[in-house]
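Allow me, if you will, to draw on your knowledge of protein folds for a short while. The matter concerns a single protein, recorded as an amino acid sequence and a row of backbone structure tokens. Kindly check, if you would, that the fold set down in the tokens agrees with what the sequence suggests. You will find the record immediately after this paragraph.
***
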Amino acid sequence: MSNAADVLRSVYGEASLGRLASAHGLDGDPYEALAGLFGDRKVRSRIVAALSEQERQLLAFAHQIGRRLRGDRLKKRWVLHGYDGFEDLIMPLVDQGLVIVGNTQAREPVALEHALENGIMQQWLQVTPGFGELAGDPPERREVVEGVTDETTPTLRRRPLVVEFNLLSLCKFIERHAIRLNRDGSPHRSDLKALAPWIIDRPIGSDRPDTTPDPLRADGWDVMIFLLSLAEGLGLIRRQGETLRIGKDPASYFQKEMAQRVPLLFRAFEQMRAWSELDAAEWSTDDEAPATGQGHGGFPENGGHGAALAGCRSTVLAGLRRLHLNDWFDIDETVETIFGLERGYLESSLPNGDGGEPEVRRFIEAFITIALPHLGAVELGTGSNGQRRARFTPFGATQLGGDCPEPASGRGALIVEPSFELTCFIDQATLPLLYDLSRFAEVVDTSERVVRYRIDGESAQYAYARGYTAERIIGVLEESSEREVPPAVRFALDDWERLHRRVTVFVHGDIIAAGEKTDPEVVQSGVRFAVDREGDIESIDIEHTFVSSGHGDALDRALTAHAPRVIDYCGPIVPTLRWVDDVRVLAPIGGTDLRTLARLQRLAIDEGDGVHRIDPDTILQHFPEGDGYAYLVQVLRDGLASGLSAERELTLKELLGQAVTGTIDDMKVLLVESDEDGERVARVADLDGCIEARLGPRAFHVKPDCIGRVVDVLDRLGVRIEDRTP
């Protein structure tokens, strides 16, 4: 009796066994026929010998892996081993029973024909026992993307520090001028036109005569939307209403070291929402920027978790990482390789194009030739015969496992001139230096490698108002310049700081301030009436009046004669309610805020003596839409002196006929090894919709119908999942 036939019978149904027997020209009972055929080692050897060389190699390769894999996983390993044609090679092995489709531990038999209709890439595959060892050794590993040997001429490269300088410049611009948004969420062209002179966009190799992008042209629009979207991903800017405004703490990014910024930059790059590779590919075919109102470059009003293309970007980047691209590589060949590796996922994740199908190749190509060069992670070139080439910059190579490049020291990056002009050499500068310069100097001119600044009284006052001092500014200039700071610049900075810090100090007296709802002119007139010496009174501003010492009695008499009675309905509610029983609260008469009493009229019946009974009918009358419970809870939280307990909240829901219901169910729990890994898994955009709830730092409740997807996504990211369910 054949072990191979037994395994096949444990997986396939009767019809599928008949199909395999027919493929070998066998009649009669399918199992008995296959058992007789596969039980003979010489017959099995002849079957394997009849395969083509590539089919034998694939069989040996799958046997070496030694375990079942999904079809798409096995194909990916085959491609990364340096070989293609997986679909054409695997089918003869399946048709002859040398590779099993399905799981040997499955409870129900597999219908082979039905499984193949659903696509072999989605099926579990494993070598039938008794055949793998007859196929010989697997083929030698080959380079997936062959390295180029001819000379490559660089054509375009952006320096990452210039990209970050542009982020810094647009942040400073938005600090002063919020960028208005159109109805479709895209920025106003006039505001982008005003921002453009702050941006450097003449990458190395570009034939443009200036460094200022034109947002009315497709290339300028593309770069500016990319920068704004990247800044939003970093939290440097945010949408607020119908404008883009500065984020909460942009300085925290610019003051970090390069090793800390690189992962943040790539994470924001993957999460960009307003810019997309497919849009950029479309814009690149036009000279003019897209028309307003079509949603191009639109910033969504509600910033949900991640972006629509985050998973696609990380997938293509992971594919590039697997190819070990250490030098120039052919763009067209790489696009085809990534297409073969990740086609299934990308087709299911990318939006449909004009032809009704996802434009996978176009996305991959735009990611390599537009997105990564915009970030400064890839430079483009041309081969000796016009071939399109690309290679990762040292900055981009960090995503391939390379070390973070050493940043410049900043020493010698500045020349400080007596005319108050500063010349900054970008290649020698650091981002913290550029950030400091943006605080106390204004950009007057930019070029490909040099930025010229100017310090004046206004820019210095801007810096002093944000915590800088003359000593600190001089220290920044000295640290980054190989020459001493000119005396004229030192003197001016000290003098401007003295003017900035000049204050008038009022001592030995009292300051009378007008209340929030009081007419300040009445207060100041009353003070002047009570104090008979005009010289002892000085108006600080419209709300504050200073009175010299010695007039305390006069001020006290005025206050006693006209003692104010203030009822402040704008202040916080003082909690005074307390429970009488489960449905009644006591509101002390004369001691309960009028706002609380007014709200109770919509929730309860007044039973006298300050007792109010919570009444479901009264609540329903005032809240027919069913939101009365939320209002009741808010009123009681604000008004109860002892606070509202969770137990009370639950009993109140039952009182209103909205009793809480629940079930106790089994669940699938994903448990990772550490809290840090839990945080990483929580940020994986491809798991959105698969996680029912997070149960703790390391535990996630997985939706039952998403278990396979979760395993596949994590397996693609290199996370090994062990199934411990019974």
Observations:
- Residues 564-568 have pLDDT under 50 and may be disordered.
- The radius of gyration is 36 Å.
- The chain has six domains: 3-134, 154-291+304-400, 414-500, 509-561, 578-655, 668-716.
- The first strand starts at residue 69 and ends at 70.
